Structure formats: C-alpha cells, structure tokens
Amino acid sequence: MSITPLIHVVDDDPSMRAALLRLLDAAGFEARGYSSTGEFLLEPRSDRPGCLLLDMRLPGPSGLDLQAMLQRENITLPIVFLTGHATVDSSVRAMKAGAVDFLTKPVKRDILLDAVQRALARDATQREAREKADHLRGQFASLTPRQREVFDRVVAGKLNKQIADELSIAERTVKREREQVMAKLNANSAADLGRLAELLQRSTVR
Amino acid sequence: MTPHGSKRQWLGVAHALLIALVLGCVAMPLHAAEEDEHVLMLYGLDPYLAPFLVMDKAVRETLASENGGRVIFFSESLDSQRFAMERLEPELVALLAKKYRALHIEVVVAVSRTALDFFVRHGERIWPGARVVYVGFLGYEFRPSELPPGASAVLSILDVAGTIDIARRLQPDAHRIVVVSGVSEIDKQAERQAREALAKLDARVPVEFLSGLPLPELAPRVAAEPSDSIVLYLTQFRDRDGRPYEPHDVLRAIIKTSRAPVYGAVESLIGLGVVAGSVASYGNRGRLIGEQVRHALAGGPPDPSRTVLAAPNGCVADARALQRWSLDERRLSADCEIRFAYVPVWRQYSWAIALALLIFAAEAALIVALLTQRHHRRLSEQREQAQRTDLARAARLAMAGELTGAIAHEINQPLGAILSNADAGDLMLDSGTDRRDELRAILADIRRDDLRASEVIQRLRDLLGKQKFERKEFDLNDAVIDLESILRAEARRRGVALEIRRAPESLAIMGDPVQIQQVLINLVLNAMDAVADESEDRRTVALSAAKGEGGAVLAVRDRGRGIAPEHRAKLFESFFSTKSSGMGLGLSITRTIVEAHGGRIRVESSSAEGTEFRVELPLAISNGAPSQHPA
To answer: Which fold has domain A142-205?
Structure first.
C-alpha cells in the first residue's frame, strides 16, 4: 500500500501528547494529536489507514464513549487504549468492544510500538478484507438475475437437474449459466462458490 | 408614719446611743462613779521594759482577782533615765496637776526610787490624799525608814549569798571570786551587803573586791581574770575618781572582754550578759504590789507588819551566757529559771506551727489538686486533640483510597510523558541525524514533568503523611489551588463538571492547612457522590472560596437531589451514612475540624436546587493588614 498510515493520538495532557507524538515520529510513524474526542471527531474523515491511540479519561466524552460511537458509525479504526489508571471494569469493557490493546501509563516503548503495529496490521487486514468483499460484491453485481438464481441454488447444494426443474428451464441452460457464474466470480468449484457466498453474506450483514 | 420613716427614726436613736456610749467610755474616768477605785502606776523608768510589763500584768491580775470592786488603772512615766527631770519638772508637775484635777487617785504605785522621790516632792499637789506603794530595792537603793507616812513598799533583797551559791554550783572548781562595785552610797551599801554575805561563806576560795576602779582600768583588769574565776557584779554608779556611771554600761563593758563568767544579783541584769543570779522575779513583785495596793485601797491605818513586803528570791540564769562560758546548765538546781533558752520554735509555738503547717498542707494539697486537675484537663485535651488528629488522618486515608484513581492518574500522567519522551530521544539518537534542538526540548519536557510528578507526591505526603495538628497562618485560596488538579482529575473520572472559584483577596486563616484541605476534599467528594446518578446537565459541582461576613467562606454546591429531611438532623453524626460504602466519618470529622478552627458549618438543601455546604472560618487577626495575594 502506498499511503502511509496516520496514527491519531487523543490525550488531553499536552505534555503526554507531545511526548507520544515525538516518540511515534522518531519511530517512523506519522501521527497527529487531539486534546479531546470532540477535536478528533471535528477532523474531516479520510480513508487513510491508521489507528487510534486513545486516552481513557478525557474531558467531555471519554475514550470508551468514542469507541462506542465509532462502532456505531461503522468506523473500524483500530483502537489502542492508554490510561493513567486502569481499572478492571474499564479494561474489560474496552477489550470486549474490540480494542487492540489496553495500556497503562507510563508505557514502555516496545509495548506501545508493538501495540501500534498490531493495530495498523489489523487495520490493514480489515481494509484488505473489505476491499476483497467490495471486489466480490462488484463481481456479484455483474451477475444476471438468472445467474443469481442459479448461484443461490448452487450454493444451497442443489444439483443441476433440481435447479432446472425449479426454474423450469433446460438442464443445459443451467449448466451454461453456472459456468458463466464461476467465470465471473473467479471460482473453480462449487466449494469455492460456497466460501464466496459466505464472505459476501458476512460483509453485507456487517 | 411610713415604714421608711420609722426605720430612719430607729437608726437615728441607735446612732445617738452609740455616740453616747463612745463618749461615755472616753469620759468615764473624769466623771467616774464614786465606787470605782483609781490606781496610778508611776514609773521612774521606761514602763515598757520587759520586766515592768511582766510586773504590771501581775499587779492588774492580782487586783482583778482579789478585789470585788472595780479598779481603774492609770499610768505615768517619768523616764528619768533618758530625760533630764530637773528641766522638765515644773511643766510636768503643772500638766499632771491639771490632768488629775478632777480625778481622785487613791493609790500611786511608785516604781523605782526616782518615782518615789517625785511623789514625795509633788504627790500632795498632783494626787492629794493618795497613798503610795513603793517598789524598789532594799538596802542599796533604799531604807524602810525613808518611806513617807502612810506608804507601804515591796522590796527586793540583794541576795549575794544565793548568787555566789549558784556561781559555785556552776563552777565548782573556781579558784577566785572577784566582786566589782563602785564607791557611790548605793554601791557602798551593796558592797557592804556582799562582804557580809561572803564572810559567812565557809569556802577557802579567796575573794577580791574591785571597788571604784575607773572603767578604762576595770575592764582590762577583769579581762585578765582566768576563765575559772567567778566575777560578781554588784553596781557601780561612781568610780573612785568621782566619775558617774550608768551601772548597766559598766556591766556591759566588763562582759564584753571577760573570760571568767560574770554573775549579778539583780533581775534587770539578767539578760544583759550575766550568767545567773539569785533574784526576785518581777512577777512575784507584781503580785505583792497588788496586795499592797489592795490593802491601801481598803483604807484604815497602815498595818506595821505589812508595811514592807520582800519579794522572794530565786535562781534565774541566762541560757546564752551559760553557753558563752561553756557552763553546764544541769548543774543548776532544778527550780532555777532558765531564760533566753533556745526553745525550739516548734516547741514554743507548737500549736501555731501545727496550724500553719496544716494550712500549708491544705493549701499545698489544694494547689496540687488544682495542678493535677489542670494537668488532667490538659492531658485529656491533648488526648482529644490527638484522637481528633488520628481520626482525621484515618478519614484522610479512607478519602485517599477513594481518590486513588485520581492520584494514580495525576502521577502516571507525567511519568508516562517522561518515559515516552526518553524513548523518543533514544530513537532520535539511534537515527543518527542531528536533531539536537528536539532533544533539548525533550529534556526540558522531561524535567518539567518530573517536577510535576514530585509535586503531586509532595502534596499527597502533606495530606496523608502528617501526624500532628499544626497551627499556622495560611491562605485558604492556596489550599484550594493545591487541590485543584486532583479534584479536577477525580471530577473527570466521574464525569462531573467541577467549577472552582477563588477569592480575589487574601483569605488568611489560622489552623492546619491539611485538615482544612481534608474538609474541602470531603465536601467535594460528597457533592460528586450526590450527583453521580444525575443526568449530565445536573452533574455539576461548584467549589468557591470567598470573603463573607462570617470570615472566610468555603462553599461547596451540587445540583443533586438534596438531602432527605429525615437525614438532615443526623448529618454530622459519626457513623451515619446513607451510602453503602461510606464509613459515615466524613461529615462528622469535617464538623469537628471546622469547630476546632473556631468556625462553623451549615447546610442548605432542597430536592430542586441541590445541596450547599457552607464552612465559615474566622480570619486571622493579621488579615487586617494589607497582604498581597498571588493571582
């Protein structure tokens, strides 16, 4: 991927924020700081890869509030939580809600950078999966209504003859449409088709 | 007549009676009733000489006990020893004559020869018809034949033999007896008596008479006597050169230098330094005088057998003189009267001393009791103070537990920044490029954050580590400033909006800053608790420090639902809490602390407006002076 990821640092303590930005910069990352969740949300959304380094305790809406909000908005930016005082309650909530890690200040460089790396890796994976699904959806969209009917039944594990009966078309026609579907979706077998169907289903449900 | 008027009249009568009584007492001798009898004590010498006082007392006692009628005493003193009678006599006689004109004196007691002579010269003019009782010495001062008609006398006898006898008891090994006397008529009479007495002595002890030696010769002569001699002083009114002396002066001069003990046979010499003598006591003389006066008052012709009464002689010794010449007191006869003995004070005044000691003891006990009481009170005050301090500290620790999150945040924040800065610096150095300016900025930030962290720790130590109650002047604003960050951190943690306002002017108060901060934290935490379950617009707490009428006012206000009316009364009681986790010490300690600082705490609460705690603390005296407060 050609675009460098951007790390968003949200911490109300200017000193802490500056130190984190400095460290990330020295470690070769590009980072941007915000003093509150609001300030972060005001920033125009971009599709740039990256992650969120989020202080738990912030003036106004807290880190956990932001996490919940992003989730609702379907924004998958991975979150690494940083807190001055970790409580079992807050850490469990954060991790359950899908945080990459939950770190306590002062945090060691290796641990912080590792967590950032993991967050970026997750972001990349998510992006890749999303792109794959998007691509698949594009391919799926290119299917004719007849081909979609055939696809649904193949995925359901039905034989060509059964499909022909159900659709009241010739078995030969079914066979041809099926080959076309396989070609359009870049699949080699009925099993391949089944996996793709699953992927599609998941990405749309989400 | 009003009751008031009646009372006044009675008072008037009482006054009149009182005045009449007083006047009556004063005037009584002048207008004495016929049955009263009047006796005049006429002293030739100072009547206040100790032996005369003894004698005078005995006279009065004798007459009071033996005479049925009333005897009124008067006294006059010629004091001839100290004042020249010749020059004063005319005026004195005129004065006395005038003084006694309206008063009939029945008996005049003339004490000493001077007094008798005065009476003989002027008695008939001053005290017409008075009979005289003479008090004097037989032999060397006076002869019975010299008594005026109708007079009687109490005479003492010069007991030389008795005196020598006493001397020899004290000094059984004495080798010589030296007798000192003068050459005046009286001296000669005394010496004659002494010679007669000594002649009768069966002793083989040689006797030497030193008669009429001039004082400059006499004193060294006596001083030369060995210490085992007996010196007997009679009287010396005149030496052989015709020089007059005061007999007592001669005695004093001898006593001063004599190594040998000196004796005397006249009571007035006892006390001047002589060891002892056989003398007539003044008490006995007084009693005899009393008898003579009574006889004279009875009227009738003088009883020849009672004209002259002789006072009995007895042994009298001077304890100080005995000690001076190292003479053994136990050698004296048992009935010998020892004067000037060192009677231990506790024996002499045993009752007075016992009483005084008792009072002292009682006073001391009282003082001890009071001191003990005071001590106890102070101890209990100290205990109370210590208890309060301990309790306050325990509550602070509990409070600190509640604040752990905020505290950890406050400390970890700078520590986190430091670590990250250091790591960043490390990475920059690894990169090899010259980023000196950035590194410098990092170091500056590290330094600043380090100080920030240690400041937090210092504040916590102040808050939690201290054991003793401190009393000093401090600004309430500063106490607020110190707590601001930790309170804000806690407020953030709880999602509560905290507003803090300080007074523009100085709020100097006296007391313990830590305890006042405790009050502050406690009230703010309580307020935060009160709004914990409220909607966001009501989750606000306001803390303000201001100057009010009651002094410095610390107010903590929340927008909670208020305190239930049934809880308000018990609000400040220990172990009362509406919270499931609370110990119920917070507000009770808060009030205790506030009251220990001379302040008071009030609460206003309503379910609509929330609750406000107001703490009023008296301003320090020096607050009147303009003081600068850092903005």
So the answer is: Arc Repressor Mutant, subunit A (1.10.10)
- The CATH code of domain A6-127 reads 3.40.50.2300
Q: Searching chain B, which residue's CA lies closest to the CA of residue A25?
A: B424
Measured in residues, chain A has a length of: 206
Out of A15, A57, A104, name the one closest to residue B493 (CB): A57
Mean pLDDT, residues B47-57 taken together: 83
Q: Which of B233, B227, B278 is nearest to B251 (CA)?
A: B233
Residue A111 structure tokens: 């641990």
**Is A109 an interface residue toward B (CB < 8 Å)?**
yes
Q: With CA atoms as reference, report the closest residue to B76 among B31, B33, B109.
A: B109
Chain A: give the shortest CA distance to residue B485, in Å. Answer: 12
pTM: 0.45
Listed residue (A198, A201, A182, A195) closest to A139, CA to CA: A182
B404 interaction partners in chain A (CB closer than 8 Å): 85
Helix or strand holding residue B502 (H, E): none
Q: Are A22 and B410 within 8 A, CB to CB? A: no
Domain boundaries, chain A: 6-127, 142-205
Instruction: Say if A202 is an interface residue toward chain B (CB within 8 Å).
Output: no
HEC string of B449-481 equals HHHHHHHHHHHHHHHHHCCCCCCEEEEHHHHHH
B178 DSSP β-pair partners: B208, B231
Is residue A167 classed as helix, strand or coil in its secondary structure? Answer: helix
Question: Residue A105's closest CA among B412, B74, B304, B126?
Answer: B412
- A50-81 pLDDT, tens per residue? 999 999 888 778 888 999 999 898 888 999 99
Pairing status of strand B131-138 against strand B276-280: unpaired
- This complex has an ipTM of 0.74
SS3 B238: strand
Q: Write the DSSP string, A86-125.
A: --HHHHHHHHHTT-SEEEESS--HHHHHHHHHHHHHHHHH
Burial of A173 by CB count in 10 Å (0-12 exposed, 13-18 middle, 19+ buried)?
middle
In 3D space, the residue among B559, B500, B521 whose CA is nearest the CA of residue B406 turns out to be B521
| Interchain proximity A15–B405, CB inside 8 Å | no
> Which of A20, A87, A105 to mutate against chain B (most B CBs within 10 Å)?
A105
Our CA-based measurement puts residue B386 at a distance from the nearest CA of chain A, in whole angstroms, of 35
The answer to whether B599 and B583 are in contact (CB under 8 A) is no
Chain A interface includes B492 (CB < 8 A) = yes
Task: For residue range B72-111, list pLDDT tens digits in order.
Answer: 899 998 877 677 777 888 899 999 999 999 888 999 999 8
| Selection from B223, B243, B239 nearest residue B231 by Cα | B223
